[in-house]
Automatic annotation (TrEMBL), chains A, B:
<dbReference type="InterPro" id="IPR036291">
    <property type="entry name" value="NAD(P)-bd_dom_sf"/>
</dbReference>
<dbReference type="GO" id="GO:0070403">
    <property type="term" value="F:NAD+ binding"/>
</dbReference>
<keyword id="KW-0560">Oxidoreductase</keyword>
<keyword id="KW-0827">Tyrosine biosynthesis</keyword>
<comment type="similarity">
    <text>Belongs to the prephenate/arogenate dehydrogenase family.</text>
</comment>
<keyword id="KW-0028">Amino-acid biosynthesis</keyword>
<dbReference type="Pfam" id="PF20463">
    <property type="entry name" value="PDH_C"/>
</dbReference>
<dbReference type="InterPro" id="IPR050812">
    <property type="entry name" value="Preph/Arog_dehydrog"/>
</dbReference>
<keyword id="KW-0520">NAD</keyword>
<protein>
    <recommendedName>
        <fullName>prephenate dehydrogenase</fullName>
        <ecNumber>1.3.1.12</ecNumber>
    </recommendedName>
</protein>
<dbReference type="GO" id="GO:0004665">
    <property type="term" value="F:prephenate dehydrogenase (NADP+) activity"/>
</dbReference>
<dbReference type="Pfam" id="PF02153">
    <property type="entry name" value="PDH_N"/>
</dbReference>
<dbReference type="GO" id="GO:0006571">
    <property type="term" value="P:tyrosine biosynthetic process"/>
</dbReference>
<dbReference type="InterPro" id="IPR008927">
    <property type="entry name" value="6-PGluconate_DH-like_C_sf"/>
</dbReference>
<keyword id="KW-0057">Aromatic amino acid biosynthesis</keyword>
<dbReference type="InterPro" id="IPR046825">
    <property type="entry name" value="PDH_C"/>
</dbReference>
<feature type="domain" description="Prephenate/arogenate dehydrogenase">
    <location>
        <begin position="3"/>
        <end position="292"/>
    </location>
</feature>
């Protein structure tokens, strides 16, 4: 698929790309680069690449494809470091959860002779670091490409083929539309999960120990989401501010209507909303983005935990 | 544990009590009663009891313990129907997710010669009906008892022993405190899950099909919660209005502070909140109310789905 693939950043996402590329022979050679020596050493122990260096400029020399998998706030510095060292025809991509701002950060620093094809694999877990990655992460998930107008179609297709080879389905849209879609499907869910866990931690009437003990009633699921990496998520909210604030406005408006229905005991309004939301759930199960099995906090042997342990 | 156990309502909770009582011999005889003949027939097919009747009054005759597992809004009618037929010394309990209001509904209709010990097993899934129940549901979960002042301690201990025999841990508190604890750990999480799924379904900028396709970014988990039974949840909000509105006020206040941090790019405030919330998550894993395994929508064979299939 690619002769030399360079991965900048080797956490959950970079580490998962490395594993699937290795397992399925998607690259002749995998070069791994990351900021800290400690993380690089761990990647080497896990055998994620063929060569390892903290020198990003050296890492991209001769690469056919470079995929940057770092928190979105670090995108510009990485682009600056690697831009001058990209070979003609190299494809440069990223995996950031935000797209318009990442394009603004990276594009100015990339040479005209490289092809910039921003991407976002819509797949993840609440864990991070090189140990958290696994080859199956992208299987049956969507990867969204947001190539700027005028990008070489062959380069876009080349990267799309790579993502399809990881098991992903590929869709193309504008960075702005991506940011709006992800604001509602990912960023706002994380924001409200972080928020309710924060609220619960600071109540006078209910102790933190009670919140923990009785979390099986629903709260528990929010804490899993709210255990996601603070750096990654800080950067998402700082760099997708407009779309997040717009969608949050909608959420709050609807929440006030719901609060009013509770206050005035409008059982019909509650019942109608609670019935409608089931259709969306069915849609998600029908397209295979979740299973109908109930999750009640007891992952069994053979599940994702095992996959993780196998690395 | 009990000579004759009568279950009024045989859905997820009643059906799970029936299965664990049968499996572990917690009752000499299990009498099953429910509103609709159709549900009763299904319970009989599943072999959940020893006798079956839609006549609730007849069902409770001679029962040592009666457990009512119906939507909380139906509690008063059930208490009215069964009250005159309870034998002296019978223990009457329920499993409602709301306690103060259920006590208000049921207590006036129960005879002085019966012992009323309200209960709430804090365990569940998003599924409902007799097929959804399983014997392991209560294992390692908390069951909260809220006996009115003056209740016979022996009756409370008898019911507590029954719940411990199902695998539950038992705690006692006032109905009012229960309702506050559950508002934050269960009712508000459900309310905001229903709300965001509703918001997502009505956007102009993002289609429902996009919401479904790209749900793996976090939204998916909310849809699971928002697929819970509409009748049960309508009743919870109608009957725990005060505590829900109080906790929702706190949630909204905190959400506005968070919105402000996003608007003014206060990365430190975001990072601080996102770091703190991890401590609560660790607490939940430490006490065994969830596992650290990442959930990414791929329940594997041998997991809860299998348990369910086995009934
Ligand atoms: N997690 C998800 O669910 C998910 C899903 C889709 C997309 N994404 C996107 O994928 C990207 C990476 O996320 P991840 O989950 O893989 O994160 P991760 O597991 O925390 O790994 C982050 C990687 O980026 C490096 N890094 C961190 N800060 C850096 C900086 N200031 N400059 C240079 N490198 C830095 C880290 O290097 P050192 O360890 O060497 O410091 C590490 O290799 C993010 O842009 C995120 O938005 C995440
Ligand atoms: N689901 C959870 O996660 C969970 C957890 C803890 C506690 N609870 C509480 O447990 C109780 C039952 O919930 P569930 O999940 O077991 O519900 P479910 O699966 O929907 O079963 C409800 C049962 O109640 C009966 N019922 C419904 N409406 C009734 C009415 N108006 N009058 C008399 N009977 C009626 C149904 O009878 P027919 O089918 O014959 O109509 C059925 O047997 C609720 O109070 C809920 O708050 C639920």
């Amino acid at each position: 698929m690619f002769g030399r693939l360079t991965l900048i950043g080797i956490g959950l996402i970079g580490g998962s790309i490395a594993r699937v590329a290795r397992r399925d022979g998607l690259a002749g050679e995998i070069v791994v680069s990351t900021r800290r020596q400690e993380t690089l050493d761990r990647a080497a122990e896990l055998g994620l690449g063929d060569r390892y260096t903290t020198d990003m400029a050296a890492a991209v020399e001769g690469a056919d494809c470079v995929i940057v998998s770092v928190p979105v706030g670090a995108s510009e510095a990485v682009a600056q470091a690697i831009g001058p060292h990209l070979k003609p025809g190299a494809i440069v991509s990223d995996v950031g959860s935000v797209k318009a701002d990442v394009v603004r950060q990276m594009a100015p620093h990339l040479p005209a002779h490289a092809h910039f094809v921003p991407a976002h694999p819509v797949a993840g877990t609440e864990h991070s670091g090189p140990d958290a990655g696994f080859a199956e992460l992208f299987h049956n998930r969507w990867c969204i490409l947001t190539p700027p107008p005028g990008t070489d179609p062959a380069a876009v297709e080349h990267l799309a083929a790579f993502w399809r080879a990881t098991g992903s389905k590929v869709e193309t849209m504008t960075p702005e539309h991506h940011d709006m879609v992800l604001a509602i499907t990912s960023h706002i869910p994380h924001l409200i999960a972080y928020n309710i866990v924060g609220t619960a931690a600071h109540l006078e009437q209910v102790t933190a120990s009670e919140v923990i003990k009785f979390s099986a009633g629903g709260f528990r699921d929010f804490t899993r989401i709210a255990a996601s990496d603070p750096t990654m998520w800080r950067d998402v909210f700082l760099h997708n501010k407009e779309a997040v604030i717009e969608m949050l406005g909608r959420f709050i408006e609807d929440l006030f209507a719901l609060q009013r229905a509770v206050r005035f005991s409008d059982g019909d309004a509650l019942f109608e909303l609670f019935t409608k939301t089931r259709a969306i759930r069915r849609g998600i199960i029908d397209v295979g983005q979740d299973t109908a099995a109930p999750d009640f906090g007891r992952a069994s042997a053979g599940g994702p935990a095992e996959i993780l342990a196998k690395g």
